[in-house]
Write a structure and sequence with these properties.
The protein is mainly alpha-helical and 377 residues long. It contains 13 helices and four strands. A hairpin with a 2-residue loop joins strand 2 (186-187) and strand 3. The mean pLDDT is 85.
């Protein structure tokens, strides 16, 4: 007598066959992931995009991950103190030169006081427009002298003794540069010769006000020599530091991989053709690995480094497209005709809301940001 055949395994249920509570939970999860990714794009704008640009351009990506083409390795402090800082955001990937000028707390008061002094010399009770412009020009020259003195101290080795004694002898090429009087080392009420800068005072006045507990940049403190030395060391690459690159890689590979893995698994249980699922389910994960590989390859010398850096734009787009397909295709496979109608209406409403947000919020903000970047000095 033949043994009875073993029961055939029950087929794995597809998304549309799952109980309604499960399908609703998965749908809301997919929508939440989509909203989270949009918020990540907003953060990307504030971190790396040039003022007036919605997302980072290939040039922005080269600057962030490789460094400016042709630029020699520099310390972080020197990188953030360019002479031409207009059009660059005031952050750790842009510039901090504005801290010597318009973003300095005493900048406007210094100009007003200098204008009053110039008017007094000319026998005027009140400074006119020409005197105010002359005062601003003088203050700007002195503030630029401060910037150059700080860079010179860093290039000279950022010596602890000079910082502790608040006394950095200026190199010969800066000996006669206009510098704010209170930043100069004095003896008997007059600047010493050869001239020297109060380098600790300079960092305290121009940097520590924000880079201390309670300041806007408190997570990057610059209140003592040990903290400053960390950013005064010359890097082997002008782009993102190895420390930050490793941290960013760690965060992306752990957190985003979990999301892409889950959205891919959801799509894997759809009833689309197997070849479609085989290609699309792992797509964001694969694109992310390629994307992060380009981050590290961007550190190579020129011309390979900038070439890989520009590829980050396209690998990042691959991640975004893969995730979008995960979300949209899975949502439509979770429900049948009535659900499709709701999804179409939902996507239409989201598209309209996005259009209104672009017209009423995003475009004015981008225009204002671009205008502010050209005026700030």
């Amino acid at each position: 007598m033949n043994a009875p055949a073993p029961p055939s395994p029950s087929p794995v249920p597809t998304l549309a066959e799952l109980p309604l509570p499960v399908r609703l939970t998965l749908a809301l999860f997919l929508l939440s992931v989509g909203l989270g990714y949009i918020s990540a794009l907003v953060q990307l704008h504030f971190q790396h995009a040039s003022p007036g640009a919605l997302l980072p351009s290939p040039e922005d990506v080269v600057r962030v991950f490789h460094g400016a083409v042709g630029e020699k390795p520099q310390s972080k402090i020197e990188q953030l103190l360019p002479e031409d800082y207009q059009g660059k955001k005031m952050n750790g990937q842009g510039q901090m030169t504005a801290a010597f000028f318009k973003r300095s707390e005493d900048y406007n008061n210094a100009i007003a006081e200098r204008a009053r002094q110039l008017a007094q010399k000319q026998g005027l009770k009140k400074p006119d427009k020409a005197i105010k412009e002359a005062a601003k020009a003088e203050i700007d020259q002195e503030r630029n002298g401060e910037r150059l003195a700080m860079i010179a101290w860093v290039r000279n080795g950022a010596k602890e003794e000079e910082y502790t004694e608040d006394n950095f002898p200026l190199p010969p090429d800066l000996a006669h540069l206009p510098i704010t009087r209170k930043m100069l080392v004095e003896q008997n009420g007059q600047p010493v010769e050869p001239r020297a800068v109060k380098i600790q005072t300079l960092f305290r006045e121009r940097c520590a006000t924000c880079h201390q507990d309670g300041g806007e940049a408190q997570h990057f403190p610059l209140t003592n020599f040990a903290e400053i030395k960390k950013y005064a060391s010359v890097k082997t690459s002008a782009g993102m530091s190895l420390e930050k690159l490793a941290q960013t890689t760690h965060v992306h590979l752990l957190s985003f991989s979990m999301l892409y893995g889950l959205t891919g698994l959801i799509l894997a249980f759809s009833n689309y053709p197997r070849w479609v699922r085989t290609v699309l389910c792992p797509l964001p994960l694969l694109a992310q690995v390629v994307d992060i590989s380009f981050w590290w390859l961007a550190r190579l010398p020129e011309p390979q480094g900038p070439m890989f850096a520009r590829c980050i734009v396209y690998s990042g787009a691959g991640v975004a497209v893969g995730l979008l397909l995960h979300i949209v295709l899975s949502l439509f496979n979770l429900f049948r005709v009535k659900g499709w109608l709701i999804l179409v209406l939902l996507f239409a409403a989201a598209g309209y809301a996005g259009y209104e947000a672009k017209i009423r919020v995003i475009d004015p903000f981008i225009a204002q940001e671009k205008s502010a970047s050209t005026e700030e000095k």
